[in-house]
Amino acid sequence: MTEHVRIESNGGILTLTLARPDKKNALTDAMYGKLADTIESAEFDPSARVILIRGEGDMFTAGNDVGEFAAVAAGKSEGSRNVVRFIQSLARCTRPLVAAVQGRAVGVGTTMLLHCDLVVLADNAQLSTPFVSLALVPEAASSLLMPARIGYARAYEMFALGETVPARSALEWGLANRVVPLDKLDAEALALAQRLARQPLGALTATKKLMRNGEALVAQMQAEGEQFAQRLRTAEAREAFTAFAERRPPDFTKVA
Fold this sequence. Notes:
The protein contains eleven helices and nine strands. It has helices at 29-42, 66-73, 82-92, 108-111, 142-150, 152-161, 167-173, 185-198, 201-211, 214-232, 235-245, and strands spanning 5-10, 13-18, 50-55, 97-101, 104-106, 118-122, 126-128, 165-166, 178-180. The protein starts with a strand and ends in an 11-residue tail after the last helix. Helix content is 46%, strand content 15%. The protein is of the alpha/beta class. Strands 1-2-3-4-6-9 form a six-stranded mixed beta sheet, with helices on both faces. It has a three-stranded mixed beta sheet with strand order 5-7-8. Strand 2 (13-18), helix 1 (29-42) and strand 3 (50-55) form a beta-alpha-beta unit.
């Protein structure tokens, strides 16, 4: 439901709040669609000088709604392209992107941060990318961006073993700009967004274009997406999501 993404605009800052705290802000197709629509529209809105992404409740996001993944794995759904629109909108976004992250940021909750220009973590933040554990592959161009940011060894461990990275380590590795106490998170992220909003937008846009090749990132996303779609329909994926639903560890050794 689109009400699970709350949109507010004030003082040049467009704030996107993931507002599904009862489901750990797990992202649905409708939520991806609303996020993509808003980010795409901001490119043509002179009043939107900075985009701030945050989550309501005690968690940034649990990532993609597992129920939607499971439906595709079971052959009950063809899936959606709104997630593709969302991650591509992040890659192509010329506006400064600021993220405020508390609690867990799982899967796309972490990979979207690689597209944000300033990331503020609460001291209780935990980042993880457990794609392989779900018999999937990385997305959002993270297979390119994560090794470039933190090195191959750390990136591989995050992807292949699903290792969780606490806030302080994320800061040390270069995945974030600030770590602050939880009760200071929103204020710190807003203050940074306000500072950016006062900067000359044309210069910010030109600088970001020089630092990031959005179309190259989209090309990587397309390559990942082909693998991701194939993996979702494998026996390994069916075992992963069945085990998740049955609250048991998956057993991939018995999957042909």
